[in-house]
Amino acid sequence: MKIVVLKFGGTSVGSIERIKNVANIINSYYKKKYKPIVVSSAMSGVTNDLIKKSKEISENFLPSEYDVLVSSGEQIACSLIAARLSHIGIRSRSWLSWQIPIITKGNHKNAKILSIYRKKIFDYLKKGGIPIITGFQGIDVNERITTIGRGGSDASAIMLAKFFKAERCIIYTDVEGVYTTDPNKLKKARKIKVISYEEMLEMASLGAKVMQPVSIQDARLNRINIEVKSSFKKKPGTLITKRKNFKNNKIIAGISSTQNDAKVTLVGVKDKPGVAAKIFKPLSKNSINVDMVVQNVSANGKETDLTFTIKTDDLNRTKKIIEGNKEIKFRKLLLKRNVSKVSIIGVGMVTTPGVTFRMFQSLAKKNINIQVISTSEIKISVLIDKKNTKKAIIALHKEFKLDNQ
Amino acid sequence: MKIVVLKFGGTSVGSIERIKNVANIINSYYKKKYKPIVVSSAMSGVTNDLIKKSKEISENFLPSEYDVLVSSGEQIACSLIAARLSHIGIRSRSWLSWQIPIITKGNHKNAKILSIYRKKIFDYLKKGGIPIITGFQGIDVNERITTIGRGGSDASAIMLAKFFKAERCIIYTDVEGVYTTDPNKLKKARKIKVISYEEMLEMASLGAKVMQPVSIQDARLNRINIEVKSSFKKKPGTLITKRKNFKNNKIIAGISSTQNDAKVTLVGVKDKPGVAAKIFKPLSKNSINVDMVVQNVSANGKETDLTFTIKTDDLNRTKKIIEGNKEIKFRKLLLKRNVSKVSIIGVGMVTTPGVTFRMFQSLAKKNINIQVISTSEIKISVLIDKKNTKKAIIALHKEFKLDNQ
């Protein structure tokens, strides 16, 4: 069986007309002798409306009931898709997670798919039916409805692709694919034809909102080829696959940038073992995510300057926690809003000398000052003044020959 | 266990504020050491919105998916009620029909509850929890969601009362109870404190829209005491129970009337055996419901006049069917719109002589002509001109001492 998983996001099923369109897309695979397994999100707006109701009922809405509540959104979307396929003469039915079943572990609102029973769906596929499966949810061992915390319906799609050994998992969404940088910010941004999981992971965690990092990681671990494409335009999307599956002639795959970062510097910290841990532990406990960290080597061996970045929203809480932390000593606390992290990502950079130099030089030419640097095997990130973000992206996009011709 | 089934209709859970109110009502039973089993309909408007969507997808929407679609409405309402109870400190959870399970037989959109498994709900009640159960639905033997055709959530409530041997089944709705006649039409209408199943059945089938006849019949067969009351006002409602449970000092329990009736008369029909069957069979095949039927004895033994009533909506179809029916011969077909059936209902009338006379006399005094009469053990119905309906109700309501003091 040539199984393909087709996942439709909330905007793709956001109206009756769009659901009719989705049925036609599914039909096009069916005609090509594929066996589609369809996963759908709730119609856009529906989940938010249900969440609004939950908040009006209680600010501490029971998580187990929250899952019962919001999971109804996918149920509605799936029944409409299945009925529409039936209307155009194709055998189809909705499969709710308890009917399959899809078993999850972990807490309500934040469960993770543990296993998917295959027999019923396989039998249904063999009979020529197209199953429409509710994304974003499952049931736990107590037969209670759960929802998947991170990744949502994408995570459902990837796990279905894994359990049914699908040739490909196609994520239909409201963008045409993954771009070299945000096309809303840079007109010259180019759609990427193929990208490795690793690059996509960096792109995703650094701000490209196409897919949740956790889902890409799941796909990578299970070697599932993902295609991200638009449900509105008939155009090829972006294939996300393993590095070896394609010839890479680009050093840099893309450029991403963040919004709303803030920089914190502790000047004159006593340079003793364990001091960084003492600073970061209470932040972590308060769910404050520390991103880039730089510690200068101290000249006298007694004091050091420690710099790190956090989200601007966490700045006030961070200030309070650090000032109230009696386990650490420092001379001065510097806080700086309006910084931005710009990153270049590409598996090619490890084998290409001089990438770092080219990045720094092209920023220097534009008089952009680099405040913090962090690097990994496949990316280099720099922290700069927020006002320079666009200028930096334009310069780097050109430098690494990413501009659309 | 003092089990009581509490059923809330769509308007009773029609907004967040009303759901909060419903949680308080449930709490009042909980405080009185009852073990409430709650059944809820969908929030008013939700089901209609889903049905609208289904029609936009297809005029022949797959019935099995229709049930998946509309059953989501009760799921939403139940999760909100359970979470609200939890918010005010009471252990509660939603129970979807597949979780219990509630097993149905029959076709989609028109299923009937076959059995309700008791163990899980009993265990939950013993632990002190309040189960909030989705009305109007179940699952079939193939584990597919079904919805209950007639009676809806009322039927669910009555079956739950039966399977859990509840002391009482309380139907919370947007009216205060059952009235001697429609209070919107007659100010002097009085709320009935207690009424027998049989009277209520006649009242329901004759136009009182409080409950579906099929649910009252189920309650009668299983001897379940029903109380119909308002979820908006703290007032006693109407108890529906068996005749022996109360002293009946009223000859007549109530008066009902119909709208949109039409009268059909076939003049000069050949009076042979089987002629009535030949007339009514094709009507029945076309789902045209024939209500009152009167056949005059023919003077010469050869011809007769046959009169019956139908809904006005069916009048044109009925005309066509009769005129196209080659198996029957008649001289003339008379059609009359704008007639109304007025009925007096009461178990007391069989043991009280002169009820029929009193009814006819009081109508005659008002110069209201009776066109057709039909009677049963506990009711007398007359067909009159529609324009006289209100006048007739006022006269009869007074004659049988039903007027509110």
Provide structural commentary.
The structure is a homodimer of 405-residue chains. With 405 residues, chain A is of the alpha/beta class. Chain A is 33% helix and 26% strand. Chain A contains 11 helices and 19 strands. In chain A, the strands form 4 sheets. Chain A has an 8-stranded mixed beta sheet, with helices on both faces. In chain A, strands 13, 14, 15, 16, 17, 18 and 19 form a 7-stranded antiparallel beta sheet that branches. In chain A, α1 (16-31) packs across α3. The relative contact order of chain A is 0.11. Chain A binds chain B through residues 16, 19-20, 50, 53-54, 56-58, 60-62, 64-66, 68-69, 72, 75-76, 78-80, 82-84, 86-87, 93-94, 96, 98-99, 143-145, and chain B through 16, 19-20, 50, 53-54, 56-58, 60-62, 64-66, 68-69, 72, 75-76, 78-80, 82-84, 86-87, 93-94, 96, 98-99, 143-145.
